[in-house]
Structure formats: structure tokens, C-alpha cells
Amino acid sequence: MRDLIERYTADSSNLSAKYDDPLSPTCIERIARFDDQWSKRLAEMNFEGMDQEGKVDYLLLRNHLLRDDHARTLATEQWKAVAPLLPFAPPIFTLEDAERNIERPDGEKTAAILAAITTIIDAQRKELEAKPSSDPKHPARITAWRAAVDAVILRKQLKSWFTFYNGYDPNFTWWAAEPYKKTDEALRLYEAFLREKIAGIASDDKTTIIGTPIGREALMADLADEMIPYAPEELIAMARIQLDWCKQQMIKASRDMGYGDDWHKALEAVKNTYVKPGDQPQLIHDLAVQGDEFAEKNNLVTIPELAKETWRMDMMTPERQLVNPFFTGGDTISVSYPTDTMTFEQRMMSMRGNNPAFSHATVFHELIPGHWLQEYMNARYRPYRQLFYDGFWIEGNAFYWEMVFWDHGFDATPEQRIGALFWRMHRCARIIFSLSFHLGKMTPEQAIDLLVNEVGHERDNAAAEVRRSFNGSYDPLYQCAYMLGALQFRALHHELVDSGKMTDRQYHDAILEEGTMPVTMLRALLTNEKLTPGFKSDWRFLEEVQPPHAY
């Protein structure tokens, strides 16, 4: 199976490079046909003759193909909604197909096609301008926003097509150069029109948040792909229970700080412990070293010396901080802290949101034993399984380490406990607002209010969190992956370590050495669970970590 997965990965990479337009029917059909061929190939294999590692790899590849199919189905449904606003897309796809097949264009005919595209764009815009917003056929704001996003893709693809021929084919350039300029400008203006006039988002608007709820059916399909046998409503209810537990612990820490039951005041005091401008990189470095030493002192996981030596640091730009107000990790930890170009209010929010207690709880999440150690080990143990990148494994495992460190007393002071609990509450809120949004039960504004009122976020930081959740940068379940994945690892720890079958270090090393995959499949590997070609998970892992104080 390893050889087969490596072959699939290489073939898929080559195919995706050639058929690279996510909107093109030709590209979508070709990749769908490729996946179908691989599904048939898998079905012909002798599953029962495989060892446990092979069976897991078989199921991982099968699930990967199913996930791709579900994503195509959702994208197709979403395209049907925006296609009427983009009637000029088909001729652009036709031009793309010809270039992809290295067909030499007829300059005169190509110029005529470009002129026709421009005419269609202008006519579509005039039609929308003449249609009052009260008209039942007037496009919804979300539909117009998605159409504007797709218009950007179409414009980019058309530019790539034009650049291929321009200057290299004199006949093409003589005929097509001027018509292309008009088409490109028409596309630019139409995209701006959709975004500003129909969706209501000005070009300099950095505050409005808009996204596309995918609905319950699509959420259920995504959860099935992640092998999570729970309904969205069950997960929201679980997150609220966990959030209540966190608040109880917040009150205890607040009392220890002398603020009684008013944990919001205690949280404010913690936020105001921020370090001076210029001191944040050293703070992050020192906390990273603390994380390494704590994991080793408690014999929790094997940490190669080279992993400790080779992580790096950079400073996050103000533009990135609009989307991600906190540091991110991996081989490089990007530190979020204010620059001299920010307003006073932005600087204070950034410094308060990245105070030492908050950072104490998450630097090791980003580096060691979190994301950087994951990357380091994934590159050295079963690297072919990187195809099965899974947020529930990646983010869930990193957040799981926050729970483990809490258990072992890493958060020793009440300020540090508040920092750790802030992030736990944040993960609970992510499940609540992201699933509620996609169920159509919460707006982005309500999600921001939840983070401010129930977690204690700075409003700008809350807005940035919600913006990156809904702007299409992450899949709908990504924000749920932190806590749900962590609770899966927690439940598996209870099953294997608390029972005495493995030590902490053996368990944590095994996680890293088996590579990224749905945690359900890791459980099947480590417990030698009986598997079938049509395996579906019924692991109700939350029962292993309830009541809330169990974690």
C-alpha cells in the first residue's frame, strides 16, 4: 500500500498541476475520472490479505478519495448558484482548454471571442444595475460575494492564457492584445461591482466579514469524512459543557488572584502583563525552551536534538495580523506583535492579546511537542502519509499537549492557569460559532460577540479569528478540529495509557511515528481493531472524556 499511495500522490500532483483551474468543467471532470479509476483499483485489491498497517493505508486512501468526491459535489452545488452571475465563464474555459492542449489560436477568431466576453460582462452588469434589490431575482449578498471571488479566479486564468501566447505568436498579439486589455478591465470592474455594489463590501473595507454556510447535510458529510460519529448539534452541546467547566476553573484562578468570582477582571489583569515592544521575541524563545525541558523532564515524548536546534522565528506583518492576531507555528514560529505602523488601539490589542500568560500556554503548541515536532517526525516516519493531512490530527494533537501540560502542572500560577483556560475557552467557542454559522444559526457578528463576551477576546482579535474562519481560507470543520481532535487523543490515552498498556512516552512517540491521519484510524492501528473494506467509525470517544473534569 505504501508504494501505491506514493504512486497516487505523484500522479495526483502531476494531474493537478496541469488541470489547475478549480472552476473549469474540464479540470473537474478529469480529476474526478482519475479518482474514480483509483477507487476501482482499490476495490480490486485483496484487503483481507493485508497486515494491519496495509489495511489502515487502504482505508486512508479510500477515505481520501471519498473526501475529494464530497468536496467536488459541494463545489458543484455552489457553482450552480453563482454561474448565472458569471455567464462569460464558458468561453474563458474554452480558451483555457485550447491552451492546455497546446493548440495554436486563430488570432482573428480569438479577438472576436474576447470582444464577445467583454460584451457579455457589460450586459450582465447593466442587467444587475437595472434590477432593484427588492426584485426576487436580485442576487443574495453571499452569492454576489462568492461570484466576485470566482471572478478573480477567472481573471487570473485568462491572464495566464494570454501570457502564454502574447509576444511569442505575432499573429495572436496583433489581433488579441487590445481586446484582451478591454476584457481584463471589464473583469476587474465587474468583480469590484459585485463585491462593492451587490455584496456591499467596499475596496478599503477591512472589517466586514462574510462567508458561505454550507448547511447541515454538508456538515454531516464532512464529519463522516473525519470519521466523527456525532451530529453537529451534539458537538455544540458538548462544547458548551466544556466551556462551562473552563469558566468554573477561571473563577478558581480569579479568586487566587484576589478578584473573587469576577474572572473578567482577572483576565484583564493578565492581559496587562504584556512585555515592552522589542521584548516579545526573547519571551517566545524562553517559553519554547521551557516547553522542551518540561516534556523531557516528565518523560512524555522523545525529542531529537536536531528538532530543538532547527526551528526558526519571524515577525508577522500587520496585514497578516488582520487575519491572524496570534502567533503561528511549525518549523518557523511567526510572532504576532505590533509594529510602528499600527494605530495606538491596534498596538494595545496586539500586545494585550499576546501577553506572557497567553503565550506560556501555546508556544509549545506551535513548536515542541506541538506543530514543529509533528512536522519533523512526519518527514522522517512514514512520510507518504502526509497525503492524509488531517486537521483533527494536526491541531488536535497540538491542543492535546496543552491538556497534558496542564495535567502535569506546567501552568503553575493563577495567571498561567488563566492563560491556559483562555485558550481552552477559545477552542470551545470555535466549535460553537463555526458549526452554528454553517447551520445558519449564527452570524459573523454574533460569533464575534461570543468570543468577546464568553471568552474575553479583544474585539479586533475576535474579528480576525472569525474572519479567517469564514473567508474560505479554512474548511468548515477546521476550527472544530482543535478540541475534537484533542478529546480523541485524550480518549485514546485513557484507553491505552491509563489502562497500563503503554507508557506516556510510548503512546506519544507512536502518534508521531505513525503519521497524520484521522485519530480513529490511529486507534485502529494501536488497538489492532478488526477492519473491513467498508469500515465506518462508531467510536463515541466523548464518553471516554466525560464528565468535563475528566480532561
Key descriptive features of the protein:
mainly alpha; globular; 1% strand; two-stranded parallel sheet; 24 helices; single chain; 551 residues
Explain this structure:
By secondary structure, the protein is mostly helical. Helices cover 66% and strands 1% of the residues. It contains 24 helices and 2 strands. It has helices spanning 2-18, 25-43, 52-82, 89-100, 107-130, 141-165, 170-198, 216-225, 232-256, 263-271, 280-297, 305-310, 318-323, 344-353, 356-360, 363-366, 371-378, 391-407, 414-438, 444-455, 459-470, 478-496, 504-514, 519-527, and strands at residues 312-315, 332-335. Strands 1-2 form a two-stranded parallel sheet. Strand 1, helix 13 (318-323) and strand 2 (332-335) form a beta-alpha-beta unit. Helix 9 packs across helix 10 (263-271) and helix 19 runs antiparallel to helix 20 (444-455). The longest helix is centred in the first third of the chain and has 31 residues, at 52-82. The chain is globular, with a radius of gyration of 26 Å.
- N-to-C SSE series? HHHHHHHHHHHHEHEHHHHHHHHHHH
Which oligomeric state applies?
single chain
Number of helices: 24
Q: Which ranges are low-confidence, i.e. pLDDT below 50, for 5 or more consecutive residues?
A: none
Approximately how much helix is present in the residues?
Answer: 55-70%
> Averaged pLDDT, please?
92
Order the strands across the largest sheet as they lie in space: 1-2
Distance between the termini: 36 Å
- Beta-strand portion reads under 5%
For the sheet with most strands, the description reads: 2 strands, parallel
Structural class: mainly alpha
Indicate the radius of gyration in whole angstroms: 26 Å
Shape: globular
Total strands: 2
